[in-house]
């Protein structure tokens, strides 16, 4: 059984207008997505900004009110508040935020910040708690003298590691990492990512890794879902997505990864333009008449794409993939 | 589970005391220390602090040694005695009552009411604003309509009516009557900041850490708007001295036999008092000016202490 099963999750925000302020329409931030996260794996959720990937992450951790659909954890639907409370759900599912500064309370000392989930879920004695906080700081590579300092006294990378320490404090099974490194510069990104991988190896944590950076996702994730306008357009293993992309949106995202090989500059430019041309010419083929993605169709045991069945098969055979 | 952490970290219980000591040495100074540094850097504010605290302590203790009913007895022989005559430091008023003693007891009453009013109305206003801003939605809507209704009532008139209706009132009941009307400004101010603060990620992080709503409101959000709260409290304290004074001046504040700064300034209603017998009202008026000025100086220092970019005090 999967660790988390997300079934047809929808998060819609009402738009109110008119004299009576009635609900006239809704923004479909997340519009019917389905996927499973296995224990111990890193699941990548990729998409442009506004595609609903952060909303999905917040729904999984219980911060967002879900319109319909279900998220199953241990067979219980945790979109309901009382189920979350009964399971002590957030002891097992934690979150790392994008903005490390605003996610740490500026008026609290590091000890209190990291100890917060411990105080709510574990009720340790004072000495045990302090010891646990020191061990956590040690695991993320910070010195003990951070204990009584405030968040603004640390650099971005250090702060993000404090965020990681807080998330792993209760030894959770799943951590939602919402663009954990996109606010950091490249050398620090690598440092934080490697810490996250190390912690995953040592504690057997699963990640739901939300990012728009395909380079980072390739480094971190085994399974990847691509999101566009609130729907999933492609699901597959790293191999499927990077080597056999089927949906035009995925191809565009991949084409947008910067290449450092200057000698091939002209060739890269040509391939980017070619992808863009296909997108402009064949948009109607890839999206339905409302401009939304189609339902997912399976093309191989691991690989699904949001296209009408006939087109999906045709593209898959072009890519030379083995049919399921 | 604890073993899991033991395994991957080379810190064990034996290191606890040593590491704790190391951390303590590197600890950031507390807020109280920062405020104190800020006062040390600003001499006028330091003087203001000494004046305000010294004066409040003086009148609170001094008033204990004065027999008020006896002091308020009319003594026609001392009718408008000049200052520094016949044992009257600041002279006597039309009833031959010592102005100096009235000033002490009157200040005690006025400041007592101001402190009581600030504590009650700010506590209520802050709680109202925080809860309203944090929960938003229907709760916010309902609470804000109550606020709108209270704002709509003509405050001074309502207080005068209430004071006239209630047969026996004293400084305590007067404080409560004022409190009904003076929480609104604070609550709206606090609500607006809370709305912004609630959207920040640390609130979301606290929610995922399993902290309940009340703890988030009063232990996470409130410390973050403490600068606003401190400044608002000091300024509304200065304002609240004026509230009682103004109403007593109009004759609807404290009863006649209870001296207050307002009843003393009311002596200036009489033109001959203003020109000839200036000592009956001038000390009280000066006291209010000095107190309010000093308090606003203190408020400025507290505001600077709360905002790191404005600090003047030596950085520890």
TrEMBL record, chain A:
<keyword id="KW-0547">Nucleotide-binding</keyword>
<keyword id="KW-0067">ATP-binding</keyword>
<keyword id="KW-0571">Peptide transport</keyword>
<keyword id="KW-0653">Protein transport</keyword>
<dbReference type="GO" id="GO:0005524">
    <property type="term" value="F:ATP binding"/>
</dbReference>
<dbReference type="InterPro" id="IPR013563">
    <property type="entry name" value="Oligopep_ABC_C"/>
</dbReference>
<dbReference type="InterPro" id="IPR050319">
    <property type="entry name" value="ABC_transp_ATP-bind"/>
</dbReference>
<dbReference type="InterPro" id="IPR003593">
    <property type="entry name" value="AAA+_ATPase"/>
</dbReference>
<keyword id="KW-0813">Transport</keyword>
<feature type="domain" description="ABC transporter">
    <location>
        <begin position="4"/>
        <end position="254"/>
    </location>
</feature>
<dbReference type="InterPro" id="IPR017871">
    <property type="entry name" value="ABC_transporter-like_CS"/>
</dbReference>
<dbReference type="InterPro" id="IPR003439">
    <property type="entry name" value="ABC_transporter-like_ATP-bd"/>
</dbReference>
<dbReference type="InterPro" id="IPR027417">
    <property type="entry name" value="P-loop_NTPase"/>
</dbReference>
<dbReference type="Pfam" id="PF00005">
    <property type="entry name" value="ABC_tran"/>
</dbReference>
<protein>
    <submittedName>
        <fullName>ATP-binding cassette domain-containing protein</fullName>
    </submittedName>
</protein>
<dbReference type="Pfam" id="PF08352">
    <property type="entry name" value="oligo_HPY"/>
</dbReference>
<comment type="similarity">
    <text>Belongs to the ABC transporter superfamily.</text>
</comment>
TrEMBL record, chain B:
<dbReference type="Pfam" id="PF12911">
    <property type="entry name" value="OppC_N"/>
</dbReference>
<keyword id="KW-1133">Transmembrane helix</keyword>
<feature type="domain" description="ABC transmembrane type-1">
    <location>
        <begin position="107"/>
        <end position="299"/>
    </location>
</feature>
<keyword id="KW-0813">Transport</keyword>
<keyword id="KW-1003">Cell membrane</keyword>
<dbReference type="InterPro" id="IPR035906">
    <property type="entry name" value="MetI-like_sf"/>
</dbReference>
<comment type="similarity">
    <text>Belongs to the binding-protein-dependent transport system permease family.</text>
</comment>
<feature type="transmembrane region" description="Helical">
    <location>
        <begin position="276"/>
        <end position="298"/>
    </location>
</feature>
<dbReference type="InterPro" id="IPR025966">
    <property type="entry name" value="OppC_N"/>
</dbReference>
<feature type="transmembrane region" description="Helical">
    <location>
        <begin position="155"/>
        <end position="183"/>
    </location>
</feature>
<feature type="transmembrane region" description="Helical">
    <location>
        <begin position="111"/>
        <end position="135"/>
    </location>
</feature>
<dbReference type="InterPro" id="IPR000515">
    <property type="entry name" value="MetI-like"/>
</dbReference>
<dbReference type="Pfam" id="PF00528">
    <property type="entry name" value="BPD_transp_1"/>
</dbReference>
<dbReference type="InterPro" id="IPR050366">
    <property type="entry name" value="BP-dependent_transpt_permease"/>
</dbReference>
<protein>
    <submittedName>
        <fullName>ABC transporter permease</fullName>
    </submittedName>
</protein>
<keyword id="KW-0812">Transmembrane</keyword>
<keyword id="KW-0472">Membrane</keyword>
<feature type="transmembrane region" description="Helical">
    <location>
        <begin position="45"/>
        <end position="66"/>
    </location>
</feature>
């Amino acid at each position: 059984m999967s660790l988390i099963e997300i079934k047809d999750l929808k998060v819609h925000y009402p738009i109110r207008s008119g004299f009576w302020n009635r609900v006239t329409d809704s923004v479909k931030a997340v519009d019917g997505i389905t996927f499973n996260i296995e224990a111990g794996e890193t699941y990548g959720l990729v998409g442009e900004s506004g595609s609903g990937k952060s909303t999905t992450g917040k729904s999984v951790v219980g911060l967002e009110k879900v319109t319909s659909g279900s998220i199953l954890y241990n067979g219980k639907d945790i979109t309901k508040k009382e189920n979350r409370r009964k399971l002590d759900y957030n002891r097992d599912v934690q979150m790392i935020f994008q903005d490390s500064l605003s996610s740490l309370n500026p008026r609290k000392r590091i000890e209190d910040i990291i100890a917060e989930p411990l105080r709510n879920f574990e009720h340790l004695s004072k000495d045990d708690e302090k010891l646990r906080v020191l061990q956590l700081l040690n695991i993320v590579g910070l010195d003990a003298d951070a204990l009584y300092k405030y968040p603004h006294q640390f650099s971005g990378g250090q702060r993000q590691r404090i965020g990681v320490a807080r998330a792993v404090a209760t030894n959770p099974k799943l951590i939602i990492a919402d663009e954990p490194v996109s606010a950091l510069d490249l050398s620090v990104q690598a440092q934080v990512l490697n810490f996250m991988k190390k912690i995953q190896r040592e504690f057997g944590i699963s990640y739901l890794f939300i990012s728009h950076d395909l380079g980072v996702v390739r480094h971190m994730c085994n399974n990847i879902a691509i999101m566009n306008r609130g729907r999933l357009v492609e699901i597959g293993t790293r191999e499927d997505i990077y080597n056999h992309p089927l949906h035009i949106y995925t191809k565009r995202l991949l084409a947008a990864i910067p290449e450092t090989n200057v000698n091939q500059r002209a060739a890269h430019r040509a391939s980017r333009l070619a992808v863009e041309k296909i997108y402009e010419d064949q948009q109607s083929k890839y999206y339905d008449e409302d401009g939304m993605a189609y339902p997912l169709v399976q093309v191989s045991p691991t690989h699904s794409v949001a296209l009408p069945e006939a087109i999906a098969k045709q593209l898959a055979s072009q890519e030379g993939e083995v049919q399921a | 589970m604890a073993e899991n952490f033991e395994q991957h970290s080379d810190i064990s219980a034996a290191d606890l005391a040593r590491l704790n000591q190391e951390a303590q040495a590197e600890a950031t100074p507390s807020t109280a220390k920062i405020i104190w540094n800020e006062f040390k850097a600003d001499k006028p504010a330091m003087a203001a602090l000494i004046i305000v605290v010294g004066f409040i302590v003086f009148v609170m203790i001094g008033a204990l040694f004065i027999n008020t009913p006896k002091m308020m007895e009319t003594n026609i022989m001392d009718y408008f005695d000049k200052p520094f005559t016949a044992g009257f430091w600041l002279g006597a008023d039309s009833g031959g009552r010592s102005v100096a003693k009235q000033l002490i007891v009157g200040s005690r009453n006025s400041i007592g009411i101001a402190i009581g009013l600030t504590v009650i109305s700010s506590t209520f206003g802050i709680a109202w604003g925080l809860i309203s801003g944090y929960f938003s939605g229907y709760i916010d809507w309902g609470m804000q309509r109550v606020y709108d209704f209270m704002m709509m009532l003509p405050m001074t008139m309502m207080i005068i009516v209430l004071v006239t209706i209630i047969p026996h009132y004293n400084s305590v009941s007067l404080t409560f009557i004022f409190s009904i009307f003076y929480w609104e400004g604070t609550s709206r101010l606090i609500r607006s900041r809370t709305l912004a603060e609630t959207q920040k990620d640390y609130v979301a992080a606290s929610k995922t850490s399993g902290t309940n709503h009340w703890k988030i409101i009063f232990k996470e959000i409130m410390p973050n708007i403490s600068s606003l709260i401190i400044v608002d409290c000091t300024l509304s304290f200065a304002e609240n001295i004026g509230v009682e004074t103004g109403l007593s001046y109009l004759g609807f504040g404290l009863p006649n036999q209870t001296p207050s700064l307002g009843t003393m300034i009311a002596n200036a209603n009489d033109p001959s008092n203003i020109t000839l017998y200036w000592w009956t009202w001038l000390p009280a008026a000066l006291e209010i000016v000095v107190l309010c000025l000093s308090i606003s100086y203190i408020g400025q220092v507290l505001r600077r202490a709360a905002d790191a970019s404005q600090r003047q005090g030596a950085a520890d």
